[in-house]
Specification:
By secondary structure, the protein is an alpha/beta fold. The chain has 15 helices and 19 strands. The N and C termini lie far apart (50 Å).
Length: 474
């Protein structure tokens, strides 16, 4: 069958596509910007990549009419827009309007469990999207999941940060809220096995793990898996704002995402039983088992997708990469350095490992201080790290940078700064004519931007000289 996957570069989409290919489906990946397409997609003959922005209906004509099934995986936890719910509503309406013109027989939507009367604004939005997507032209299948546990998921990474950094936690009272966490592996089973199953047309199912746990119990069980002794005291005095700051400063999340999570974590998420597990032959894993499997992926360096690579993780960069690929030439300050390359392959391998646990090769303490400063003024700091130790693709998060272009065959890596700055910054590395060329470009915004550049310029000479020397020294 021919299957359309929206949100193809997202946390779930990137993991679902290989399963659909393994089931011999032809997959059409709808993404906002082709530059963000996974390199493997371009090499797979059963994958077609199209550009489509569901906020811009004029771009949807690229969607083939002969699709059989469509996955609607478009959603966000960002609070960056005041009319967040309106934007999600527009996306769903444009999707539905166009899909009704195609031959699609089934639409599968991954939503959230919404059984409580009082819902967070994100869960209210999910529920509203469910209503919008219903249509007499196709069968709608809705899987409603709670907390998703897997390597790279936002909930997993935030719990990991809290458990591994804090032996003793004085935590908000919402840690006593009950939920039913579900392994990402099980989520993918439900989504993939539901494709083309006519029994699921025009139905909705809550999908959840076998245990009802509080967030506090999740933290403590996570600690048990990691063989760590942790103590947690919940207090009723933390306001939502204080709770958001608590998550923001301790974990790698952005403040906007922390606020969204706090808003959602005050809502109990308990699913309604059904026979969906039997129908699709899925036996959900326990929470501890899901955590153990996640760490197996981490240890094997085989994390397929991470929430940190989402644009939501910073909110600074727009979704169009074309805007940032061409580094500006005028009205900018530049720090350019070049060195003779001794071994091209080894230099590229070192470059492709930059950041994250590897670090920036020189002046590590200064990079860390810059990260702390960024965090203090509401930026993302260095905690975001990177998803893969040695692999980089356009769209990946890299500490407080975003990968705009990464191609070893062209010997070029381009990063865009997502730290808080009075302007815009790029960091470009490339090898040409036997020379390793490193260029830091800063386009200032007003007088503050110019003063900032002159203030940090002495440090640039120290850091960038040391970094390029280490990269070419093999």
């Amino acid at each position: 069958m021919k299957i359309l996957v929206t949100g193809a570069t997202g946390y779930i989409g990137k993991r679902l596509i290989p399963l659909l290919i393994n089931d011999d489906h032809q997959v059409v990946c709808a993404i906002r910007d082709k530059l963000r397409a996974d390199k493997a997609y371009k090499e797979e003959e059963h994958i077609e990549i199209i550009e489509a922005d569901f906020l811009k209906p004029e771009t949807l004509s690229s969607i083939p009419e002969d699709i059989d099934i469509a996955y609607y995986l478009i959603h966000s936890m960002s609070n960056s827009s005041k009319d967040f719910e309106s934007l999600e509503e527009q996306c769903a309406k444009h999707f539905k309007t166009y899909l009704e013109k195609t031959n699609v027989k089934q639409v599968i939507y991954l939503s959230g469990i919404t059984n409580e009367k009082k819902l967070s604004k994100h869960l209210r939005s999910r529920k509203n999207v469910e209503k919008i997507l219903k249509s007499p032209h196709y069968g709608l299948t809705i899987f409603k999941a709670g907390i998703i546990v897997g390597s790279g998921s936002s909930s997993f990474e935030i719990i990991r940060d809290l458990v591994e950094k804090l032996p003793i936690m004085i935590a908000p009272k919402w840690l006593d809220t009950k939920t039913q966490p579900l392994s990402v592996r099980d989520v993918l089973f439900f989504l993939s096995r539901g494709a083309g199953d006519e029994r699921l047309y025009n139905t909705s199912f809550d999908v959840f793990g076998p245990e009802i746990l509080t967030y506090k119990q999740m933290l403590l069980q996570f600690a048990e898996v990691r063989e760590l002794k942790r103590y947690i005291l919940t207090v009723p005095v933390m306001t939502p704002k204080l709770s958001s700051y608590w998550l923001y400063f301790v974990t790698s999340t952005s403040y906007k995402l922390a606020s969204s999570l706090v808003d959602s974590m005050g809502v109990q998420i308990i699913g309604k039983p059904s026979d969906i597990n039997t129908m699709l032959d899925v036996e959900p894993l326990s929470y501890k088992t899901a955590v153990k499997l996640a760490f197996e992926k981490i240890e094997q360096n085989s994390i397929v997708s991470s929430w940190k690579d989402s644009m939501v993780s910073s909110g600074r960069l727009s979704n169009s990469f074309h805007k940032y690929v061409n580094v500006p030439k005028y009205g900018c300050f530049k720090d350019y350095k070049e060195r003779e390359v001794k071994d091209t392959d080894k230099t590229l391998d070192k470059l492709w490992r930059i950041g994250g646990s590897t670090g920036w090769y020189y002046g590590t303490i200064l990079w860390k201080i810059r990260g702390y400063m960024d965090k203090l003024v509401g930026g993302i700091g260095l905690r975001r790290g990177r998803t893969h130790v040695s692999q980089l693709d356009a769209g990946d998060a890299l500490d407080f940078w975003r990968v705009i272009f990464a191609d070893k065959t062209q010997k070029k890596l381009l990063l865009y700064a997502e730290m808080r700055l009075p302007g815009e910054a790029w960091l470009e590395f490339k090898i040409e004519d036997g020379l390793f060329k490193q260029t830091a470009t800063f386009r200032p915004r007003g007088l503050a931007g110019r003063l900032y550049w002159y203030a940090v310029f002495p440090f640039h000479g120290f850091i960038f000289n040391g970094m390029i020397n280490k990269l070419v020294d093999v």
